[in-house]
Write a structure and sequence with these properties.
The complex is a heterodimer of chains A (about 550) and B (about 100).
Chain A: H1 6-27, H2 33-41, E1 45-47, E2 52-56, E3 62-64, H3 65-78, E4 82-85, E5 91-93, H4 101-110, E6 127-128, H5 142-153, E7 168-171, E8 185-191, E9 197-203, E10 215-222, H6 226-240, H7 251-258, H8 260-274, H9 283-292, H10 308-314, H11 316-325, E11 326-328, E12 334-339, E13 350-352, H12 353-366, E14 370-373, E15 379-385, H13 389-398, E16 413-414, H14 429-438, H15 442-448, E17 453-456, E18 470-477, E19 480-487, E20 499-500, E21 505-506, H16 510-524, H17 532-539, H18 542-549
Parallel strand pairs in A: 6-7, 7-8, 16-17, 17-18
Antiparallel strand pairs in A: 1-2, 2-5, 3-14, 4-5, 4-13, 8-9, 9-10, 11-12, 12-15, 14-15, 18-19, 19-20, 19-21
Helix pairs in contact in A: 1-2, 1-4, 3-4, 3-12, 5-9, 6-8, 7-8, 10-11, 16-17, 16-18
Chain B: E1 2-8, E2 14-17, E3 22-23, H1 35-50, E4 54-64, E5 70-72, H2 75-82, H3 89-97
Antiparallel strand pairs in B: 1-2, 1-4, 2-3, 4-5
Classes of the chains: A alpha+beta (about 550), B alpha+beta (about 100).
Chain lengths: ~550, ~100
């Protein structure tokens, strides 16, 4: 893992001191709320419906056990005993007191964490594949480049007040688990004909009220040009991006209005001007960062998969958990474990202080002191010895952390919605709870197979509804919550924006509607292996419309 | 019929203007029936903002329930007044465990 250098330590510490002073000045009345708000947002502090909310950065979703344990400590000492993992691999605390936040940031700094770049119109926390470094299908570890971008972007004076927030995602594999095509910049690691590593660069993706799929702006960018090219994109965006209308200020609108070909010319011209300057990345610098992400010392183990067979036969719950929550690791004898934070009837992505600490313990004992947060709001143990899976599972069961549903219909992404969020129009969590309870029966859920439901409580789409296989958007219709359903969205390498299926549904009718959609899929699939998305893409909307409105 | 609500500056908690100041219990709210009373309430709130007591002030519509307790008309404000409609933290975990 990346460790702070002296600059990082001094900078984070100075930022905490600065914010403590700002809070004191705010309380003393020396700063108005208008003056204070942009300052608190630069430190991840929002005002939500019930209280302040602090969003803590988990850069590229990677953290160690000390850091995870600190999140549990903060949840217990300063909040109400839980935290909420977000769709950008961060964690939010929903109840901190403003007066406590400098102390929270102080505590975070002791484990090399902070809340910078989690808010405001800056380059946000770079996200990536939660299986980075361990996935079998990976070209290179994308976190190396995410960290390079973090170092370049943090405190970059030119990009602190962009027209709008700016999100970058990187995948190291052809199979995209980081949703790169719905980001302002999406980077896919590729090799060229000579075997050199570089990036396929996408620009202008995003969700929100105007969902757009990113366009490829460059087929191959050599890795040493990563910063120069990114800076060229940001500079062009900063120059031409609209500041007159916040709803048209994201780079996706610029790409749409200007056209990718014209924009590419501007970006390439700027890139040509700066590529051989200080932003050129020496190989040694890349290797220096790469060394922070060196694989742990794996034990030389045989393939223990067969060893699990008896335990799987003896425990159907374990068998199902292995099937859904355990992925192949690139090193023999090892596995990747997804700890699902989606219990049937539970709030998606939440973990109690105790659960945070239990996961920290598991990471320390069984995963070479490393954990990941996925954008699907789950926690990953990336380096587990396969022979330890049963022991881990048994602990997870006791702690309520063993839902065997990763990737299935009850592994629902949901934003906090109107239960917490000041922007929301409708609740998300109760809809997710109703759906996960309804579909929790193991046999049926397994039969349905891969199906991603994503729920947002407003058009800002923090719950990624646009790219859900089934997307659910909460709206306010004359004071009542109403839910619009989209079908056919996808956030992988075949990214698609879902299509609205028809008139929306009252909250009490959403489960019934999704049930009909699922039944329609099951009736129409050609084989048991044909996924919901494949069936939808083959048969189109009409059978689903007939089922819902016929 | 309106009440005045805000968030307390130092901890962000939702508060309501009462006859005696700012309370966390909506039942303590001063019920404001006349436009002049609303204006006076907002003037009091403006003063509290200047004194760094509160932020994010709004006059919201309420009705009275069978106990004459104020209930916000809009769901958003009901959630602000009475808290999330879902369990969270240890309470949620225990419910799921049961």
């Amino acid at each position: 893992m990346y460790r702070y250098d002296e600059f990082d330590k001094e900078f984070v510490s100075a930022r905490v001191d600065q914010f403590r002073d700002q809070v004191e000045r705010r309380m003393a009345g020396d700063l108005s709320e208008d003056e204070f708000k942009p300052l608190r947002l630069m430190n991840g502090v929002y005002l939500q419906l019930h209280a302040y909310m602090l969003r803590v950065a988990i850069p590229y979703g990677t953290l160690n056990s000390r850091q995870m344990r600190m999140l549990g400590h903060i949840a217990r000492k300063y909040d109400r005993g839980y935290g909420h993992f977000t769709t950008r691999q961060n964690i939010q605390f929903n109840w901190p007191k403003l007066l406590d936040i400098p102390d929270i940031l102080d505590d975070l700094a002791t484990v090399e964490m902070h809340a910078i770049q989690t808010s405001g119109n800056c380059i946000r926390n770079v996200t990536t594949d939660h299986f980075a470094g361990v996935a079998e299908d990976e070209i290179a570890d994308p976190r190396v480049y995410a960290e390079i971008l973090r170092q370049w972007s943090t405190l970059h004076p030119e990009f602190i007040f962009l027209p709008r927030k700016f999100k970058i995602a990187i995948t190291g594999a052809a199979h995209d688990r980081a949703a790169i095509q719905v980001h302002d910049i999406g980077l896919q690691l590729v090799r060229n004909e000579d075997g050199e590593i570089g990036f396929s660069v996408y620009v202008g993706g995003g969700q929100g009220r105007t969902p757009m799929i990113a366009k490829q702006v460059r087929e191959f960018l050599p890795e040493q040009d990563l910063i120069a090219y990114t800076e060229a994109i940001l500079r062009v965006y900063n120059l031409y991006g609209r500041r007159d209308n916040k709803y048209k200020a994201r780079i996706k609108i610029l790409v749409h209005e200007t056209g990718i070909d014209v924009l590419r010319e501007d970006i390439e011209a700027e890139f040509k001007r700066i590529r051989d300057g200080v932003l050129h990345l020496p190989k040694a610098d890349i290797e220096a960062i790469d060394s922070y992400f060196a694989p742990p010392q794996y034990a030389d183990l045989p393939d223990h998969t067969a060893m699990l067979d008896e335990a799987r036969r003896a425990d159907t719950g374990f068998d199902r958990w292995i099937t859904n929550n355990v992925e192949a690791h690139k090193i023999q004898g090892h596995s990747i474990v997804t700890i699902s934070l989606k219990p049937a009837g539970g709030p998606p992505g939440d973990a109690t202080d105790r659960q945070l600490e239990i996961m920290a313990d598991l990471g320390e004992k069984f995963s070479h002191d490393e954990l990941r947060i996925s954008h699907e709001q789950n926690v990953i143990l990336p380096h587990v010895e396969t022979r330890n899976l049963k022991e881990i599972y048994d602990i997870l069961v006791v702690e309520g952390l063993a839902p065997a549903n990763a990737g299935l219909i009850t592994d629902i992404i949901a934003c906090p919605g109107l239960d917490y969020c000041a922007l929301a129009n409708a609740r998300s969590i109760p809809v997710a709870q109703d759906l996960s309870e309804h579909f929790a029966k193991a046999e049926r859920e397994q039969d349905i197979g891969e199906l991603k439901i994503k729920i947002s409580g407003c058009i800002n789409a923090c719950g990624h509804h646009h790219v859900g296989h089934i997307g659910i958007l909460g709206v306010d219709r004359k004071g009542e919550e109403f839910y619009q359903i989209t079908l056919g969205g996808s956030a992988d390498e075949n990214t698609a924006i879902g299509n609205i299926i028809g008139p929306g549904f009252a909250s009490e009718d959403v489960v019934g509607a999704v049930d009909k959609i699922v039944d329609t899929y099951l009736d129409h699939r050609e084989t048991r292996d044909e996924s919901f998305l494949a069936t939808y893409n083959r048969i189109g909307q009409q059978p689903f419309k007939d089922a819902l409105y016929g | 019929m309106k009440i005045i609500t805000a968030n307390r500056l130092h901890d962000g908690i939702v508060v309501f203007l009462s006859a005696d100041g700012w309370e966390t219990d909506i039942n303590q709210s001063a019920i404001l029936n006349a436009p002049d009373a609303v204006d006076a309430g907002l003037a009091t709130a403006a003063n509290a903002i200047r004194n760094s007591e509160i932020i994010d002030v709004n006059a919201i519509d309420v009705s009275l329930d069978e106990n004459d307790s104020p209930v916000p008309v809009k769901l958003r404000e009901r959630i602000r007044a009475f808290g999330p409609t879902v369990q969270y933290g240890e309470a949620a975990r225990q419910t799921l465990a049961a």
